[in-house]
Specification:
Blueprint (H helix, E strand, L loop, with lengths): L2 H8 L1 E5 L2 E4 L1 H9 L5 E2 L6 E2 L2 H8 L10 E2 L6 E2 L2 H8 L5 H4 L11
Antiparallel strand pairs: 1-2, 3-4, 5-6
């Protein structure tokens, strides 16, 4: 008998009307040893949680389904920050590269 199974069998706490309850500490310990993975059906990447899977799968959306659209061209983006970075590409060069010095304010 595997060690975890034996430990679970030895740790029955309460028996009530044929219902057996396990010690919750042991159940949590047992479940934490199980490795859950979510495999992307598009690229095969394995992700550790459902949340990371949901964040990953959005990258496989066709461009026309992405939520953030550039008002100057046809490009669409998954993240708002990506759209903001892209919008700088539509600025004139003088504005695109006009960064001010933090110390003196000179551009």
């Amino acid at each position: 008998m595997p060690e975890n199974t034996k430990a679970m069998n030895d740790n029955f706490r309460h028996h009530t009307n044929l219902t057996v309850r396990l010690c919750t500490v042991l159940i949590i310990s047992f479940l934490s040893n199980i490795i859950w993975t979510f495999r992307c059906h598009e690229c095969g990447k394995e992700l550790a949680s459902e949340l990371t899977y949901e964040k990953h799968i959005i990258h496989h959306l066709p461009e026309d389904k992405r939520p953030f659209k550039c008002e100057h061209c046809l490009r669409r983006f998954v993240y708002k920050e990506s759209l903001k970075a892209h919008l700088r590409s539509h600025l004139p060069d003088i504005e695109k590269y006009a960064f001010a010095c933090n110390a003196c304010g000179k551009k």
